[in-house]
Write a structure and sequence with these properties.
heterodimer; A: 226 residues; mainly beta; eight-stranded antiparallel beta barrel; 4 helices; 9 strands; B: 539 residues; mainly alpha; two-stranded antiparallel ribbon
Chain lengths: 226, 539
């Protein structure tokens, strides 16, 4: 050990200015490589916690996001299958919270295989199909992450929303409760995309009385942050 | 035969114009008509401010001299340039101040502007130059023209009366690269005009002068004035980092840290700002922050951009928190980063000039070049090349001289049909070609020498820090050998050093640090150190 230290200080006693060019390269070779000795210091093992603390790429404080959306529904009444187009508006209070309003128009209510079977057997299915909905929501974004897309870093948030509103059905309006979760991707200061799952519940008016329908849907929207 | 007749005509016109100027205008016209004079010759008669006085200064004119003056009057400078040898070579006038100025003027007017201006400035007695010649020069070469910015000569104070203070300040301030010369800076500053490049440069030098001489307070005042001025001659980021350095020198570390952080990532000064930021933290007694800042710098992408001090500093901060594994890694990093760089820079000084060729060509064509544009050549060039003001000016001068060299070459090849009296290539034009080529080559050589000198300085710096790294290693070995004792005698209270680096924005994102570093994470590290140089709680 002593020898090692002495030899190191012997190297230091040469002035660097007097060192010939090739000597510098040789001197590099003598640096490091004493791992056996470093291991002796294992009693001192500081806990080093490294974190990355960085800015959000997209500012989401007091900004309005306007997002045309497409939703496809499943569950609920077994005889029809619906698809809707809509317009969602999310006002971002902070990156964690936003409030929103969503209008949907059912542009397609098609008969399912079950419904088709009934019709072919001359039975009219009992259906109170939806025509549209207006829902208010409050959204919380608890988790975030980032993606490396072809060396472009994109931030995203996982969100969850709850809300309520009205669904316009064939036989009148019905109070509707909704809950959804999904992922919001912030491509740039203005362009956004959301992909999510949505649950809705309301009562449909059927011939035999009211029937609570629990409907699932998948949503995708491409928005613009003002 | 035609040539002979034209010469006779020119001679006659020249002689008549020189000797019989008081003639009435209509009489002149008659003579011109009689001799079949051209429009050019009419111009001579009408323009009393052009070469008339110069012709008088020459005295009795030969035909060749008359032809030359006629060309000048007619603004046929290329022809006049070719005519110079026939007209004045070996004559007393050619050696006179006015004759020299006239020759330089012809150089200037055919496109050899820098050569012409430098030729003019060789004249040691400018007051003896004929006033008409001076007027020609003033009109042709205003002080804001390119030639003034690129010409290289020592200013003779006698020229100030002719070209004014602006020219003097422009030429002399360009040579102020020694910020220690306070008297010169002050003198030129007083003579300089506001909102000019020279004024900004001198204010910058004054700020540096104060800072280098231990008066950082005054330096900061000058710098703050400069930063408020609407000028773009001195790089804003260079001023920011300089302000930070002044604050650091005075011990205002928190303020210095704020300034260092203002240097954006895209800046060529960012690496240096980060390194100095890390120094500020270690001076504040916050080695955990130094570790966080230098973690960005040792990213492999910065291998050829960082200075050797960055790794040394990192090892020092690791040593301070007893992160011996980290120190060992830093020793390895130093070797892997700077051994190849030192070897590359040594080769640059001896046999591998390809990186300099690349840099020279690009900076000549595109002007200032950001560090990232060096691409793979960055590993073979000194890290300051893109910011070196001397190199930039040398490249600009070389570029302009290369253009002039091409012009001279064209003039030479055209001299057969361009010269009037001589047949064949002219020896004096050939000399001009050689002169311009030599000047370009000298300027280019100066550029190459400067790069090599910077390379030599960087190798010395690497060697110097290498010695310090050996000291760090010795310290590491020493501490490792006694670490058991330290652990046994250490206090029970757990020491926690919380980092304060990373983003300070309102809405931050936090991610755990891992061995894989994404590029957006650079400069956003925060490191907390617990139980640095203390015994593990388990033991």
């Amino acid at each position: 050990m002593k020898k090692t230290i002495l030899s190191l200080f012997a190297v230091l006693s040469f002035g660097y200015e007097s060192m010939a060019a090739s000597e510098i390269l040789k001197d590099f070779d003598s640096l490091g490589g004493n791992s056996d000795i470093y291991d002796k210091a294992s009693a001192l093992n500081p806990e080093i916690k490294t974190q990355i603390i960085q800015n959000r790429i997209v500012d989401r404080r007091m900004r309005l996001e306007v997002a045309p959306s497409y939703t496809t529904y499943w569950g609920g009444n077994p005889y029809i299958s619906s698809q809707s187009a809509g317009l969602d508006m999310h006002f971002h209070l902070t990156p964690r919270w936003s409030v929103g309003l969503s209008y949907n128009f059912q542009f397609m209510n098609s008969v399912t295989d079950e419904g088709d079977w009934l019709i072919q057997n001359e039975i009219v299915p009992d259906v109170d199909y939806p025509e549209g909905s207006i829902l208010g929501k409050i959204t919380y974004y608890p988790f975030y992450g980032k993606l490396n897309l072809f060396n472009n870093i994109v931030h995203f948030d996982i969100y969850g929303s709850v809300g309520g509103g009205t669904t316009q059905l064939r036989f009148g309006n019905q109070t509707t409760m909704t809950a959804d979760f999904g992922i919001g991707i912030w491509w740039s200061q203005h362009l956004t995309t959301r992909v999510g799952y949505q649950f809705q519940t309301y009562e449909a008016q059927l011939k035999n009385g009211s029937d609570r329908l629990n409907i699932s849907s998948g949503l995708i929207s491409v928005g613009y942050l003002l | 035969m035609k040539l002979f007749r034209k010469t006779i005509c020119n001679f006659a016109v020249g002689a008549l114009v020189a000797q019989a100027l008081p003639l009435a205008a209509h009489a002149e016209e008659n003579i011109m008509d009689l001799l079949g004079g051209s429009d050019a010759e009419v111009v001579i008669g009408q323009d009393k401010s052009l070469t008339r006085e110069l012709r008088k200064a020459v005295g009795s004119l030969t035909a060749e001299q008359n032809i030359l003056f006629n060309f000048i009057d007619n603004k046929e400078f290329k022809k006049a340039f070719y005519q110079w040898g026939s007209a004045f070579e070996g004559k007393a006038f050619a050696k006179s101040p006015t004759g020299q100025a006239l020759k330089a003027y012809l150089f200037y007017k055919v496109g050899l502007e820098i050569n012409g201006l430098e030729m003019l400035m060789k004249n040691t007695n400018p007051s003896a130059i004929h006033p008409e010649m001076v007027a020609f020069w003033k009109e042709a070469a205003p002080v804001d023209s390119k030639a003034w910015k690129l010409a290289d000569f020592d200013w003779n104070p006698k020229w100030t009366n002719i070209f004014g203070r602006d020219a003097e300040v422009q030429i002399r301030s360009r040579k102020v690269f020694d910020a220690n010369n306070y008297a010169l800076i002050e003198e030129l500053l007083r003579k300089s005009k506001e909102d000019t490049e020279e004024r900004a440069w001198l204010e910058w030098q004054l700020a540096l002068n104060f800072a280098l001489n231990g008066d950082a307070g005054k330096g900061a005042k000058v710098l703050s004035l400069l930063m408020k001025e609407k000028q773009n001659f001195i790089d804003q980021e260079l001023m920011t980092i300089t302000a930070a350095r002044m604050l650091y020198e005075k011990g205002f570390l928190d303020a210095a840290i704020k300034y260092y952080k203002q240097v954006p990532k895209k800046s060529d000064y960012w690496v240096e700002a980060q390194e100095e930021l890390a120094w500020s933290y270690i001076r504040k007694g916050e080695p955990q922050n130094t570790m966080a800042v230098t973690k960005s710098l040792v990213h492999p992408a910065f291998k050829s951009l960082i200075g050797p001090e960055s790794v040394f500093l990192r090892s020092l901060s690791q040593l301070k928190v007893c992160d011996y594994k980290g120190v060992a890694q830093s020793l390895e990093d130093y070797k892997s980063f700077f051994r190849p760089k030192a070897a590359n820079l040594e080769r640059l000084q001896t046999d591998n000039v390809e990186p300099i060729d690349f840099f020279f060509k690009n900076v000549q064509e595109k002007g200032r070049m950001p560090l990232k544009k060096l691409k793979t050549y960055a590993a073979h060039l000194p890290r300051y090349v893109t910011r070196d003001e001397v190199l930039f000016r040398l490249s600009q001068r070389a570029s302009a001289l290369e253009d002039e060299s091409k012009i001279a070459k064209d003039l030479y090849t055209q001299s057969l049909q361009g010269g009037t009296a001589k047949v064949g290539f002219q020896a004096d034009i050939d000399r001009v070609k050689v002169l311009t080529q030599d000047k370009y080559q000298t300027s280019k050589n100066a550029f190459y020498s400067r790069v090599k000198r910077l390379a030599e300085e960087e190798v010395n710096e690497i060697a110097q820090i290498l010695q310090k790294m050996h000291i760090v290693e010795a310290e590491l070995l020493q501490q490792a050998s006694v670490s058991q004792d330290i652990a046994a005698t250490d206090k029970k209270d757990i020491d926690v050093k919380k980092g304060s680096t990373g983003s300070e924005a309102k809405d931050v994102l936090k991610f755990p640090g891992s061995s894989e570093v994404w590029f957006d994470e650079i400069s956003h590290f925060k490191i907390d150190v617990k139980k640095g140089c203390q015994v593990s709680s388990k033991k």
